């Protein structure tokens, strides 16, 4: 993870613009499931049930809603194949793949955060034992 040091603070206007950009991104990717769903589909195209099995904890109702939202915003495509029964396959678009770096950074930060929490918990246990 890149750590920024000794760089001058950005101007007030630049901060405001950056904040607006972040808020726009969060508006489109809001909720706890959208990035997880995009990440799941980046690995390979999947059917509804495969996605639900991989992204544990999401209900069918919420998954259906989130997939519709992602499709409306151009992050995934829903391909319907006229088989018996009908096959529906979801896959990411090129636009969703532009999030690869962002997801990678979030993953790295999440791992770093998990380690920090583990260290904090160890210290609390050590203090309790003393």
From TrEMBL:
Which residue range or ranges hold the HTH hxlR-type domain?
15-118
Q: Do you know which PANTHER family this protein is assigned to?
A: TRANSCRIPTIONAL REGULATOR, TRANSCRIPTIONAL REGULATOR, MARR FAMILY
Q: A Pfam family matched by this chain, by name?
A: HxlR
Q: Which Gene3D superfamilies match?
A: Winged helix-like DNA-binding domain superfamily/Winged helix DNA-binding domain
Instruction: Report the protein name in the record.
Output: HxlR family transcriptional regulator
DNA-binding keyword on record:
yes
UniProt-listed PROSITE patterns: HTH_HXLR (PS51118)
